[in-house]
Fold this sequence. Notes:
Elements: H1 13-50, H2 53-64, H3 70-78, H4 88-101, H5 103-128
Amino acid sequence: MKSSGSLRYFTNKALSRKVAQYDQFIRKMQARDHYYDIISTEVRKLRSQIFAFQYNEVANQISRAKTIDQTKIDSFIKTNPPLLNKDPAVFNQYLEMVRSRRMADRLKDLKELQLLAIELLGELKKEYEL
């Protein structure tokens, strides 16, 4: 709607602002997603310096899971994977990268986006009697 110029047909300024707010929020999330993709790549690179491939793959599976499975985490820890690297600087860099991912922020953003979408749909239904 924005790129086609269709927003100009909205006469309700509050509705136009709500659409713009939604669009701005989506763009912010896209930029953050790009940043998270870069961070995730760096996390995997650092993890490959710490654990052998077979352990690294298990760690990747745990981190990609949709929910936190403490049983899998505990099982991984109990395997006591041998370390390829004992350099504290590598560990520090790895921990900082993992901390930077902040998936909780992503979930919060998604919930906020959902609320914005519900509000926007409600306004559109009200304005255009849909």
